[in-house]
Amino acid sequence: MMLIVTHVFKPLNLGTLYNDKFHRYKLRLAAMKKANKLSDTDLCVMCGMCLPQCPTYQLYQTETESPRGRVALMQAINQQKININSKALLHIDHCLGCLNCETICPSRVPYGQLIDEFRNQYNQSVRKPWLTKLILKQAAKPDGLHALTSIINKPVLKQLIKLGSTFTDLPKNTLTVEPTHLKSFYAGTYNSQEECRGEVSLFTGCIGKSSDYRSIKDATFILNQLGFDVNIPEQQTCCGAMHQHNGQLETAKTLLNKNRAQLEQQKSSVILFFSPACGASLKQAENIAIKDARTFILEALRHQPLNFSTQKQPVALHESCSHRNMLRLKTLNTELLNCIPGIQIIESSDPSLCCGAGGLQSINYPQQAQALLQGKLKSFDLMQTNIFISDNIGCSLHIKTAITGYNPDIKVMHPISYLASQLISNEKK
Question: Where is the 4Fe-4S ferredoxin-type domain (predicted)?
């Protein structure tokens, strides 16, 4: 007896089958990408070339405070080989994001991206000081930090911050502000008295109005002297760098998009920025002609030289990690300062050493930041000069907290401000 089994097949729809498989493939791929955002840690071959370049490794002299050690910790946590604990997270969060390691890495490990992504994934597990949270919240608002500094200038809150710093070891003058003339000089268009060569816009960011006002004013003055009209757009927001490096990647992306939308509306041929940290962030935006203000001024001076007074006193030059390792404008500061006749530049004996500011790291880990700053300041001979040039606002604010201990008369200035101070002009301030 033969048993006959019959199968009834439905008509095969190849299009549906393909779409269904493709949909499942996309879901699996998306899941893999989400799970493997830290997969680039596998690029690290643990050679150890990064160790001598890392400021926190030099400070702590422990493997877990090095790029190689942090990569190993990120791998172990991501692969669930070790439990997430505050000590492991602290070692990773100590990173300043200076990216010295990336400049020496033979395997091209994207260390900065890995640190940012890890902080983003484990943001809720890392405790931040209340002041950091407040700054990040305010910086995300248009003109938010200026409003915050206006509040902080009130005597009652100053005393509370002073009291809080007693318990948290916050460096003094963490939020140094320069409120002078802010109402009379900020947003608007400043026309050149010379034959107009074009119009540029200035990106001042979230803190420029409050703490980098002098650089804005001096850049406008020099650009006007070179024949450029200067537009300073209203309602500028943070570039997003602080949020990106503090585990808030979505907020950073939102701020970048807001700035891009606003800057795209400008009629100017180019957008100029002051802070290398802001510039590195803004360069991620597409369809915007963005340029370092120092580069633009230097190129303009080569075509139309201005007269600068001869300088006999040397000046000390600090170059930020974002300038050296993100923008990689190796000789820009020295070339700009060399426009001044007779200039003598005092350089650091350890130029790659981070000053410890690290964006908000001077607030997150003030003892670490101050220890690194002391090492940085000691690398200069500051008895020869009363002028200290710093190209990044975050570094400048941090340096101001301790530099008078080496020379009580010293001034910290942006290179553009120092250039403006030496410019010979009938309209000079």
Answer: 34-65, 86-117
pLDDT tens per residue across span 360-379: 999 999 999 999 999 999 99
Paired residues of 317 in beta bridges? 347, 389
In degrees and rounded to multiples of 5, residue 390 shows phi and psi of -135, 130
Q: What domains are defined for the chain?
A: 39-125 (1.10.1060.10), 307-421 (3.40.50)
Backbone angles phi, psi at 316, to 5 degrees: -90, 140
The answer to whether residues 304 and 226 touch, using CB atoms and an 8 Å cutoff, is yes
Please provide the DSSP assignment of 275-322 as one string.
-HHHHHHHTTSSS--EEEHHHHHHHHHHHS---B----S-EEEE--HI
Interatomic CA distance for residues 381 and 379, integer angstroms? 7
Q: In what order do the strands lie in the sheet with 198-203?
A: 188-190, 228-232, 198-203, 270-273, 290-292
- Helix, strand or coil, per DSSP, at residue 269: coil
DSSP secondary structure letters along 127-189 = ---HHHHHHHHHHTSTTHHHHHHHHHTSHHHHHHHHHHHHHH-PPTTTT----TTTTTSSSEE
Q: What is the per-residue pLDDT across 65-119, written as a single tens digit (0 to 9) for each?
A: 999 999 999 999 988 898 888 888 999 999 999 999 999 999 999 999 999 999 9
Measured distance CA(297)–CA(415) in Å, rounded: 11
pLDDT tens profile 315-344: 999 999 999 999 888 899 999 999 999 999
